[in-house]
Amino acid sequence: MHNKAFYTFLKKLLVLALPMVVAFICYLAIDPFKTIWHYDRYFEDNVAHVGLNMDFVCTENFVNRNPVQKYNAFIFGNSRSQYWQTDYWQKFIGDDSRCYHYYGSGESLYGMGKNIQFIHQCGNSIDYALLVVDAALLGQTEAKPGHLFCTPPRIVGHRNFLKFHTTNFIAFIHPLFAYTYLDLLLHKKLKPYMLEKYLIEQPIVYNPNSNEIVDQMFDEAIADGTYYTEKRMLRFLDKQYPDSISHPLLLQENIRMLTDIAHILHLNHTQYKVVINPLFDQIKFNPTDLQILQEIFGKQNVYDFSGKNDITSDYHNYYEESHYRPIIAQQLMDSIYSQ
Fold it and tell me: Do 207 and 191 share a domain, yes or no?
């Protein structure tokens, strides 16, 4: 009698577990976030793609290509730094520079510090560096949650392996993502809701050697006058605070992390610049925090483009309220290196 009850319970358990087992097999086979199998290239040109964890992509792509490229020049930051193009940067640094763009979506100070430490531990000489930062990055001293932001196991050690992949699997089986992914597979069509909810990303052009992305479709739309639609302009509405100053962010832990970064740069005799982003919100970077950055990295190496200025006063310089265009990054490089 007891055996019969046990087998009945086991049968019900297997029936309940079956969908999860099937989902896990699909997750392994499809690898939607490209975190399981090896990839020579993480993005295909001009093809819509699932949003990926850029810290993971940067790390794995670096490991794959570094033995040949032997990178010695790096741009660090959050997604706002992605438009600082390395081919333009090379005009200002040494002819021996081999550039790599190492950034994360919503990057934290914790993540940026870990990335710099990882490169140093790999034995690369960090001869040149750009640290493209803002209050959002500098204020975060802990790893961020979520499959797009969590720190890769290779960076923080394999003790994070289970947590990392559990986070990705949970994101995969979320009903909204599962529906969206199936919709894209079946209809091969990028729909507005996919972009609005950041489930699927628009087609891009990708350079795996420098790990750089170009939003070619955006720039083409701007060139032909179709980008700044009425709907898109709503994203700029009431998003500026020209008389505001950011709250002090750099407390003891932040300062420790920044000091660790500076130490690695000094060990490498790095020629570096620290750049504070010109954000559309026009909020001025806190002067006390600015002074701390100058004390850690040297006043001559820190450039503050925050607040109200010619760049932040013109929405044409931005794709939306958060990201400025490559042409602005070029202007900033011209300004920095001319000094």
Answer: yes
